Amino acid sequence: MMLVISWLLAAVAAVMYLKSGLQKLRNPYALQLVMSGYVSVPFRWIQTAAPIIITSEILTAVWLLVPFTRQVGVYAGIGLQLLFIILLTKNFGKTMEYGCGCFGLNQPQTIEGKHLYVNGMILTVLILLATLM
């Protein structure tokens, strides 16, 4: 039974990461604009970081689905979620000109508690999955 629950949690998280990564892959420039709202660094740094984020999300999805790499996927996902939560917290209440990248791009959006809640729930699922392994 625990194996089934573990597989289902991993599959749900993998679909979420794959969907998010593929959405960003379709429009990497929009991701760069979103990322520029979160941090004040030279844009060329963001241009370097954006493909890393996209690749990390897609690899995390694959790792979560493959049983012998699931643990790597869980910890990669936890790392990604912690990064996202830190950035959301740092920018809480700020209106992001290009959106917050919270499951959607290209529309102005204010970072609210619901964004932290959703990311916190994803983190909770990943932590639960880590305890089941």
Word description of this protein:
With 133 residues, this protein is mainly alpha-helical. 75% of the residues lie in helices and 3% in strands. It is built from 5 helices and 2 strands. The chain has helices at residues 2-26, 28-38, 43-65, 70-90, 113-132; strands at 95-96, 109-110. The protein has a two-stranded antiparallel sheet with strand order 1-2. Helix 1 packs antiparallel against helix 3, helix 2 packs across helix 3 (43-65) and helix 3 (43-65) packs antiparallel against helix 4. The mean pLDDT is 89.
Notable characteristics:
75% helix; two-stranded antiparallel sheet; 133 residues; mainly alpha; 5 helices
How would you briefly describe this protein structure?
The chain is mainly alpha-helical and 133 residues long. The chain has helices spanning 2-26, 28-38, 43-65, 70-90, 113-132; strands at residues 95-96, 109-110.
Shape field: globular
Task: Catalogue the unreliable spans.
Answer: none
Name the assembly state. Answer: single chain
Q: Could you tell me the number of beta strands?
A: 2
Radius of gyration over all CA atoms, rounded: 15 Å
The largest pleated sheet is described as:
2 strands, antiparallel
Q: What is the end-to-end distance?
A: 13 Å
* Whole-number mean pLDDT: 89
Strand-residue proportion:
under 5%
Summed up, the helix count is: 5
Query: What is the helix content?
Result: over 70%
Give helix and strand order, one letter per element, not per position: HHHHEEH
Class of secondary structure makeup: mainly alpha
Write out the strand line-up for the largest beta sheet, numbering strands in chain order. Answer: 1-2
